[in-house]
C-alpha cells in the first residue's frame, strides 16, 4: 500500500499528524478470538443489561418505554424493507417511497402543519435543522425557553459554534418558562418545548404572540404521544414543530437509532432539510412517488443550502408509520389518556410519601413530572435499581435532589405502588 501511494514508510505516512497527538506505544489489543468466543463474551455483556430484563422502567426524558405492537417489526423487519436506505432511484423504490410519503402525511396530520420531511436523525438534531431554517432569513439570534431539555440546548450550542450563534436560554426557575416580552429584530427563532423537560405543559401561544410581533419564527419541540389529547402545534400558531419519534415503533435500543420528526408551514418548504417524498402520476396516469425539493448542498442549492444532511431514518420512520397506523386516531387518544392518568396516579403515590415533594407544585403535566428528594437523586435511583426499578432521570442542573419520573401506558397500578414502597424504604434507610 505504501508503494502504491508513493510513501516510503509508515512514519512518513503519518508525518502530518502532530507528535503530541500520536500514540507512542503499541495499541495493546487483546489476542484474537474465535467467533464462538466473541459471541459468548457479547452474550455475557448483554446479560448485564437489566433494563430490558427485570427493571421496571420509569425513566424518560426523551426516550420512553412505550409498548411496541408485534406487527411493527413483523412488517418493518421484512427483507424488502429492512435494508432500505435513501431511495435514489424512484422507479425501483416505489414501495419505500410510498411508506415515507405516508409517514410525512401522518406527521402533518399529527401536527396540523402543511409539510413534513421524510425524517431526520433524532429530535435534538431536528431542532438544529429547524433553527437553521429560521436563520436562513438573515437573522442570527436564537432564544430558547428554559424548559427545553438541556441536551437539546447543548446540541444547539455545538452546531451553533460553526454556524455563528449561541442559544440564549430564558430561565425557568419554577419549571415553566416565562415568555419573552421584548424580542430584538435580530432574533430568528424562539424555541419552546411542550410538554417541557419536566413534563410540564407550557403556554405555547404566549410565546407565539411576541415572536410574531418581532417577525421571529416559533419552533415547538413536542411529544408525539401527547397529540391525542393536547392541542397540536399548528393550532398553537407554531411555524416549525420537531420531535423525537422514538415512542412510535422504536424500542429503547441503548439510545438509538431513533428518528427526528420535522413539520412546518408551507411557506417554509423550500428551506426544509433532507428528503421530501412527493406524490405524482406516471405517463399512464397511475400514482407514483418521487424525491422532490431536495434543496440541500448536494443538489441545486450548493452554498445557499440551509442544511447539508443527505439522508433520513428510513427504517425507523417505517416503524413509526406502522405504529401510528396501528394506533389510529382513537388509539392515539387512548394512549395519551392512559399516560396522563397513570402519571397522575404515580405523582400522588410518590408525593404522598413524607419525605418526597413536588419539585414544581401546581403545574399541570402530561406523562412526566419532577419530584424533590431529601437525598441525592442519583444515589436514590441507583439504590432502587437493586430493588428492580429504573426510577427516573436525575436533573442535576436544577439541584442534587430533583428526579424526573416518566409513566407510560405500560406501567401498572401494582408497579407504581411497588415503586412508592421501595422509594420509601430507600429514603428511610
Describe the structure.
The protein is α/β, with parallel strands linked by helices and 429 residues long. It has twelve helices and 15 strands. The strands form four sheets. A seven-stranded mixed sheet has the order 2-8-7-6-5-3-4, with helices on both faces. The chain has a four-stranded antiparallel sheet with strand order 11-12-15-14, covered by helices on one side. Strands 1-13 form a two-stranded parallel sheet. It is globular, with a radius of gyration of 24 Å. The model has no long low-confidence stretch (mean pLDDT 92).
For the record, the CATH architecture of the largest domain stands as 3-Layer(aba) Sandwich
The coarse overall form would be: globular
Q: Which structural class matches the secondary elements?
A: alpha/beta
Nearest-integer average pLDDT: 92
Give, in spatial order, the strands making up the sheet with the most strands. 2-8-7-6-5-3-4
Order of helices and strands: HHHEHHHEHEHEEHEEEEEHEEHEEEH
Give the total of beta strands: 15
**CATH topology assignment of the largest domain:** Aspartate Aminotransferase, domain 2
Output the CATH class name of the largest domain.
Alpha Beta
| Rg, Cα atoms, Å | 24 Å
- Count the domains: 2
Our measurement of the CA-to-CA distance between the termini, rounded to an integer number of angstroms, reads: 64 Å
